[in-house]
Amino acid sequence: MTDRSAAGSTGTPRGIGPFGAVPAGLSEPAALGVVLAFLAYLSAFASITNVVGGTTRLVAVVAVAAVCGAALARLVAPRTAIRLTAGLLLVGLFGYYLAIPGSRVALGSLVTVALDVVSLLTGLSVLRLVLVDVWVLVVVPVPTFLVAYLAGRGRHVTAATVAGGTLGFLVLTGDAGDATTLAGVIGVAVAVGLSTVSVPGGFRSHGGTLAAVLAVMVLASATVTVVPAGAAQPWAVDRGAPGIESTVVGDDELEIVGTTRLSPEVRFTMESSVERNWHVGSYDTYTGDGWVRSGEERPLDGSLSGPPGETTAVESTFTAETELETLPAPWQAVGVGGVVGGAAQVDERGTIHPSSPVLPGDQVAMESRVLDASPSELRNASTDYDPAIEERYTQLPESTPDRVGERTAEILAEADAENPYDGAAAIESHLIEEYDYSLTIERPDGDIADAFLFEMTAGYCTYFATTMVAMLRSQGVPARLATGYSSGQQVSGDEYVVRGQDAHAWVMVYFPEHGWVEFDPTPSAERDLARDIRLAEARSDGAENVDTEQSGFEINPGIQEEPNELPEPDETNGTESDSNGSDTEVNGSDSTVNDSVPEELRPDGPSTATGSDGDGPSLPSREILGYWLFVVVVATAGARHVGVTDRAYHAARLRLPSRSRTPRADAERAFEDLERILSRRYRARRAGETPRAYLDGLRARGVDDRVHAVGEVYERAAYAGDVTPEEADEARRTVRRLALESTPLVGRLFDRE
After folding, report:
1. SS3 helix, strand, coil % of the chain, rounded to 5?
2. Contacts of 181 (CB under 8 A, 6+ apart)
3. Threshold 0.90, pTM exceeds
4. Across-strand partners of 506?
């Protein structure tokens, strides 16, 4: 494979074009691969600007950088081009640093910006960066300039490598999907391949290697995209339905999935004088298929100021029953006590996070300021939003269909909503009334809010909340997605038991004089029914960690006591009457609590799922079988290409007994195997060298005398045809013994004899 410079006698690429001489490298076939790899990483950058805005500016700066790189390919030397590229990167990053508001970055700390970029390699999306649209505009010209310059000079393999490396960075951050990654890999392979065949005799001498490289690159693109938390998932893994808690609590990126499960295990107990959703985080950037919280955290120094309007001080204390990486509390938590408070962090949305996990048994005291605003006060609130708030919390992807805003406007008009509060209430009511709650759904393609609004009839909390936020933002109302837990099971006047199945997502709308106000568009009755059913199933199955001393209940014949009862059962001597008039024990060993429940409300997914969490053994999908078939084909072809299969075959043949043929054939085969052993240990037989001369030549190097006996048997068999079956068998056994003695570990057994 060759990476050559298409240069004339003076070292300058030749060609004719609208600007005079055009680099000849851009007209060579290998440039097609470079273009494909370039378009792949450009597509990944465009998906980022689609979310935050600026795609038109992106196209403009890319065009300028590409033209400059191609033009300078015939004017400057490679070293000069490298210096220009490095300077362009440094100037761009410095400009990005200057563009960041002082309130959002440590003053004078360029190191902070550098660490932000490095942290992306741990799988954090670039959407978490401050002013990511500016970051893209200063970064994308750098590889574009270098790729165009190298391609113009005919260095197609190097140019494709730069493009592939840029795409690889976006794979690591999770911002490049499967299709984009595969396109980039194919582009690099095409550039390498066409560069190879452009050399006289190149395909003939390197064609096999090229095919192996292409296969391995395609295979790698299917597997490596999972590093370390990328957007793509490995083709070979079938994880089953994820738990709802894992998708809404804790991470800086929220992925909206399809069918989900409920976990009845207790996470914490909460003591609070108010019953609220227990807030643990919120998200500002909507990507069209999920959410990202941008910005960085800073140490919590004292107490936060809390909402700007009238509030009530609330003290709450939670006790962790499992390890927690969040600090649940009524919104807005302004302070945290104890050891946790001494090292707590606060993000740019005012949420307090622990710097290390809260361990089981730990009690954490939280101080909150809970908003007291009445509906009438919120209706009369100002719409004079702070520009930073308005820009950040009315963001929608550029690809968001117009019909989302149009449908929202119709709903607001029908409800005569003339202010943001009435508008939010109208959207909330519309979603609750028009859509059903379901845990078993198929994740739609494209924009989630658009699909839910126009194509779906049911979903769960992340779908309802995402859609409401997008609808509000389409009308210029600042809103964001909040996550945490609903209040859970009340076990006393001010104590609540909160389980994994209580994980929840809702909406927060901004009102200038009051701050962030909660709205919940998810139908609560159906949601609570699904949770109650899951808990009843877990208790009936004897599952562990689903109750505390306060939340559990003792089962006695004919008596059911449960603090969180199923909605309105018909009780007759400890039984429930189902829709068919038959009696079913709620807590007995033969409980069939799911039988009369619609499949979409079953908390473990469709009825075909196995195991308590719906993740039991199942047949592999066609995609998985296809993937592993591809792995086997590639591995076999590669092993055959480099001679691994041939060596393995002969190694096994040397060491394992074989079926006897004619004495002459056995003797000839024994000597052939002997040659293989001697060639690895000493040297191969030279062309024209007789077997006797070969063995005599090795005598001085201490070759075992047994090899000469095998050689004599071979000579009689090959030249005289006079060899007995006993002599041929002995020759075969001798060679097999020599092979075993040369085998690692096994050979030590012979040394002890």
Report:
1. 50, 15, 40
2. 40, 167, 171, 221, 225, 232
3. no
4. 482
Q: What confidence tens digit (pLDDT) does each residue in 599-655 have?
A: 555 555 443 333 334 444 445 555 455 445 545 555 565 555 555 666 666 666 666
Please report the beta strands in 486-626, taking only residues with DSSP state E, as ranges in sequence order. Answer: 489-492, 495-499, 503-511, 515-519, 571-572, 575-577, 583-585
Helical spans, DSSP H, in 441-522: 448-454, 461-474
Q: How far apart are CA 698 and CA 69, in angstroms?
A: 62
β-bridge pairing 436-437 and 458-459: parallel
For residue 567, the SS3 value is coil
- Residue 552: name the closest of 500, 603, 497 by CA: 497
> For residue 331, which of 512, 517, 579 has the smallest C-alpha distance?
517
Neighbour order of strands in the sheet with 311-320: 333-336, 363-371, 311-320, 266-272, 495-499, 489-492
**Helix or strand (DSSP H, E) at 606:** none
Give the HSE-up count for residue 571: Cα atoms under 13 Å, Cβ half-sphere: 12
Q: What's the distance, CA 361 to chain centroid? A: 32
Q: What is the pLDDT of residues 350-372, one digit of tens each?
A: 999 998 999 999 999 999 999 99
- 665-697 in b/e burial notation, b at 16+ Cβ within 10 A? ebbbbbbebbbbbbeeeeeebeeeeebeebbee
**Beta strands per DSSP E along 236-295:** 253-255, 266-272, 278-283, 285-286, 290-292
At position 690, the amino acid (one-letter code) is T
Tokens 């990476």 found at: 3
Quick check: bond before 332 cis, omega within 30? yes
Which residues are within 8 A (CB) of 57 and not within 5 positions of it... i.e. 6 or more apart?
A: 49, 133, 137
What are 242's two structure tokens?
């994820």
